[in-house]
From TrEMBL:
Tagged with keyword Aminoacyl-tRNA synthetase: no
Protein name: Vitamin B12-dependent ribonucleotide reductase
Region listing for Disordered, in residue ranges: 701-729, 893-919
Family in the record: Belongs to the ribonucleoside diphosphate reductase class-2 family.
Domain of life: Bacteria
Length: 965
């Protein structure tokens, strides 16, 4: 179980002054090029809009390794291949993409003196190529967009701007944001230097205040798509808690939500992307309040807190701290904004305080550093380091971090920046953001609950090892190519922060042999790194962050993003042959084997999860193992404080912060939000945001539906009238008109077809008689389970009459099926029906049987109800897909994908290749399984519902994100 040790002596990374790095092989084989080690295949990529079927992208004959999933190939082809489609300049192979990036990095490394000799540069190139080819890590999206192209080579995903109290500075802010969005990145800014609306201008008038200038920036962002491609601009706006306009800032987005509700109720189209949603302001930014320890202590004690003018720092008003904290929490409860950033904690871990304070962050709150700076990101796929025996590849992880952090630093040497100020700061301080993805999958595969001391111990250990190694390599780089320019003036502070990281590492309490091995190596890394850094300084003022890893997580075929747990145990999967199917997350069987379950039990539990979407009452699964399979959503979802505790476990080992939103149930109260925000401060987090289910109106949970007002107008308007220009007064009139609908009973004819089924559930026998309309489905049900005159017989008769009348009045059978399946009471257990082998109750069996007999396949697939033959066909399709190189563990594409079909795929039974209608992503599948809508926007590009990725969202189909990484 224990991970491999790493010797303290590292001849491969000796860093003599100006001598260059010696690089040894980690993943590659001498004399064999990485491209020669994989099987390549050609595929056709055709992306369509899930909602209307229109083709929005097509490129045929692209080349990828056979091991890459359909989804990963789709995203790389559509997002990262450069050149106009249909021209000779268009990239068509993953080899071209990797070579374009890696060869640029190698050339820059040689040009700027990073390597001891050309042989080391070649090994460096091959190692990076192998790791990218095998999805061990990925650079952030701007690298793939820009490096090696004629375009400006912007490599950073995260930017922080600065705004001063002048109109010139404010207008520069608008321009700089636009340039950053154009390059495919996001930015954040703190507006606290702008004087408040309660202060005077030099002319004698009253200032507008920062909130008014937010309107112009919001409108600008709403018209610019990042990278000119698929995602809207991502931005963060921050205001200090002592700013006199803080209350106005706090409630801005909550007020806009009230506006959305009022306009929606008046008949306007307020769906995401709707015609009238543009009238809503402040929707393109995340808002955060920068709180101080002074304010939080006043909240704790119930004291007053002073709001201060921006011109002279004079107290403008003393307020009740708890009242303001309640206002912040109330607004977050209503619309998820604002989040909190804990100013004193952030600046206590700041390596460069002599240069300036940290005042802002990027849009997702993971990058926190100097104003007018940027950070380029890269993330490691943790599942690539999990051994078959449950151990962790410590040696390979350490050496992989060395390679990646070296490449990231090289990129700053040749990178372009959107403004000269940002370029100057970034080249002088060289901020990097190495991180990871697939933590949730790693913990589950290891048999560890996400919300547990054991899970947090492993997460903290890995994070400490990653950052400790990154800083040790940074110190070595300083000995080769010099420390960052701002190091000399910040040396004492930088060394103090390194000691804080090392001290936090000493506080980790390993709970397993795996964690013990990782912590032991992390301790060596911090000790060695601080020793080298004390002599050389460090090359980078920042080394690590935990980013959302949205698009690149899908590129690496990760089951989970960033620091997140798994979304759910069931996934929607696209197959190489073009079909799709529902599968159980393949981390689940690996976790069950880690927990010691034999194969027959693993199969039974996986089948139960496929049927129900959760592990509750899975046959043979011990209740103490339920927490291992807890997810972000579903029957057993992780409690909000479980997310906060995980963030607190890893925060001391991150240079920056963590992109993560703490999801809260719809029933959560404002007091619950207050508790989360307060505990975040107590536990030492740097930033925290919450999202309460269904709190936002402006982000629809499914495809936009026409409202009643529109339908009525369309139905009654004369030919040629323009219903879209109906005046508001007319719309209000239409809304007020109520049409009462009364159902009409449709009785069955005297003579009707019927059939009777005898059944046994847990030893209790009975009979089910179902009668149907000659041409229109089920209309009557009779149940008999006991002698006439008994109480049970009477209850069954009454239940049968109630169901039959409901059916005749038009209640759909699928409604009854969704309500009564999975109902649990005795008798329960084995049945004598080959299509329904286990039943949770008599009701569960009856309505499963009715569904099988009277509902079409597509409807049953949504409900997870299949015949024995259909299940067998699905299993055969999985086996055939695996044998043809399809990765069944990856997340599915939401848009249809065409490939060159292989014989085995063509032979698969139709039932296995079909997917439920109206389900185009794992989020939509989860909704169907749990019967509850998920809070997520629809993708602008392909129309599928996105899924959470950190504090952002990512589309599984096309890779578009709502964030900046």
């Amino acid at each position: 179980m224990a991970g491999d040790g790493v010797t303290a002596s590292r001849s491969r990374t000796r860093a003599g002054a100006a001598a260059g790095l010696k690089v040894e092989r980690v993943w590659t084989t001498d004399g064999v090029h990485p491209y020669d080690e994989v099987v390549w295949e050609r595929r056709d990529i055709v992306m369509t809009n899930w909602r209307d079927g229109s083709i929005n992208f097509e490129q045929r004959g692209v080349e990828f390794p056979a091991s890459w999933s359909v989804n990963a190939a789709n995203i790389v082809t559509t997002k990262y291949f450069r050149g106009a489609v249909g021209t000779d300049e268009r990239e068509w192979s993953l080899r071209q993409l990797i070579d374009r990036v890696v060869k640029t990095y190698r050339a820059a490394g040689e040009r700027y003196g990073y390597f001891a000799d050309p042989a080391d540069a070649e090994i460096f190139e091959h190692e990076l190529t192998w790791m990218l080819l095998h999805q061990v890590f990925s650079f952030n999206s701007p690298v793939w967009f820009n490096v090696g192209t004629p375009s400006p080579q912007q490599v950073s995903a995260c930017f922080i701007l600065a705004v001063d109290d002048s109109m010139d500075s404010i207008l520069d802010w608008y321009k700089e944001e636009g340039l950053i969005f154009k390059g495919g990145s996001g930015s954040g800014v703190n507006l606290s230097r702008i004087r408040s609306s309660r202060e005077l201008l030099s002319s004698g008038g009253t200032a507008s205040g920062p909130v008014s200038f937010m309107r112009g920036a919001d409108a600008s962002a709403g018209t610019i798509k990042s990278g000119g491609a698929t995602r809207r601009a991502a931005k963060m706006v921050i205001l200090d808690v002592d700013h006199p306009d803080i209350e106005e800032f706090v409630v801005t987005k909550a007020r806009e939500e009230d506006k959305i509700r009022a306009l929606r109720d008046a008949g306007f189209d307020m769906d995401l992307g709707g015609a009238d949603i543009v009238s809503v302001q402040y929707q393109n930014a995340n808002n955060s309040v920068r709180v101080s320890d002074e304010f939080m202590k006043a909240v704790e004690t119930g004291g007053e807190f002073s709001l201060r003018g921006r011109l002279d720092g004079a107290v403008i008003e003393d307020i009740d701290a708890r009242k303001l904290f309640r206002t912040i929490s109330q607004a977050a409860w209503e619309c998820a904004d604002p989040g909190l950033q804990y100013d004193d904690t952030i600046n206590d871990w700041h390596t460069c305080p002599e240069t300036g304070r940290i005042t802002a962050s990027n849009p997702c709150s993971e990058y926190l550093h100097l104003d007018n700076s940027s950070c380029n990101l890269a993330s490691l796929n943790l599942m690539k380091f999990l051994r078959a025996d449950g151990g962790f590849e410590v040696e390979k992880f350490v050496r992989s971090v060395e390679l990646v952090i070296t490449a990231m630093d090289i990129s700053i040497c040749f990178a372009d920046f959107p403004t000269e100020k940002i370029g100057e700061t970034t080249r002088a301080y060289r901020q990097l953001g190495i991180g990871y993805a697939n933590l949730g999958a790693l913990l589950m595969a290891s048999g560890l609950p996400y919300d547990s001391e054991q899970g947090r111990s492993v997460a903290a250990s890995i994070t400490s090892l990653m950052t400790g190694t990154a800083y040790r390599r940074s110190a070595e780089l300083a000995g080769v190519v010099g420390a960052y320019d701002g190091y000399a003036r910040n040396a004492e502070a930088h060394q103090r922060v390194m000691r804080k990281h090392a001290a936090a590492n000493d506080e980790i309490k390993p709970t397993s042999t795996v964690a013990t091995a990782i912590v032991r190596e992390a301790t060596r890394q911090w000790t060695q790194g601080n020793k080298i850094g004390g002599k050389n300084g460090w090359r980078n003022s920042q080394a690590s962050v935990l980013a959302p890893t949205g698009t690149i997580g899908l590129m690496m075929d990760c089951d989970t993003t960033g620091v997140e747990p798994d979304l759910a145990l069931v996934k929607f999967k696209k197959l190489v042959g073009g079909g799709s199917m529902q599968i159980v997350n393949q981390t689940v069987p690996r976790a069950l084997r880690s927990l010691g379950y034999p194969e027959e039990q693993v199969e039974a539990i996986v089948e139960h999860i496929a049927d129900h979407g959760h592990v509750v009452d899975a046959p043979g699964l011990k209740t103490e193992h339920y927490p291992v399979f807890d997810c972000a959503m579903g029957e057993r979802s992780i409690a909000p404080m479980g997310h906060v505790r995980m963030m607190a476990a890893v925060q001391p080992f991150i240079s920056g912060a963590i992109s993560k939103t703490v999801n809260m149930p719809e029933a959560a109260t404002v007091e619950d939000v207050e508790k989360i925000y307060f505990e975040g401060w107590k536990l030492g987090l740097k930033a925290l945001a919450i999202y309460r289910d269904n709190c936002k109106v402006g982000q629809p949970l499914s495809a936009a539906k026409p409202n009643k007002a529109t339908e009525t107008t369309a139905a009654t308007a004369p030919t040629g009238s323009a219903t879209s220009s109906t005046p508001r007064a007319e719309v209000e009139k239409i809304v007020e008109k109520v049409v009462e609908y009364r159902p009409v009973r449709k009785r069955l004819p005297k003579k009707r077809p019927s059939h009777t089924v005898s059944f046994s559930v847990g030893g209790a026998e009975g009979y089910l008689t179902a009668s149907s309309y000659p041409d229109d489905g089920l209309g009557e049900v009779f149940l008999k389970m006991s002698k006439q005159g008994s109480t049970l017989a009477g209850v069954m008769d009454a239940f049968s009459v109630a169901i039959s009348i409901g059916l005749q009045y038009g209640v759909p059978l699928e409604t009854y099926v969704s309500k009564f399946t999975n109902m649990r009471f005795e008798p329960a257990g084995m049945t004598d029906d080959p299509d329904v082998r286990m039943a949770a109750s008599v009701m569960d069996y009856i309505f499963r049987r009715l569904a099988l007999d009277f509902l079409p396949y597509e409807t049953r697939a949504e409900l997870g109800i299949f015949t024995a033959a259909e299940r067998a066909a699905q299993l055969r399709a999985e086996a055939e897909a695996e044998s043809n190189g399809v990765d069944l563990t990856a997340m599915a594409s939401s848009a249809p994908v065409e490939t060159r079909p292989e014989p085995a795929a063509e032979a698969a039974e139709p039932a296995a290749a079909r997917s439920a209608p109206r389900v185009g992503s794992s989020t939509e599948l989860l909704e169907a399984v749990i019967g509850k809508a998920a809070d997520a926007p629809l993708c602008f590009t392909c129309g599928t519902k996105m899924r959470p990725a950190g504090s952002c969202y990512v589309c599984e189909g096309c890779g578009s994100t709502s964030g900046c990484s």
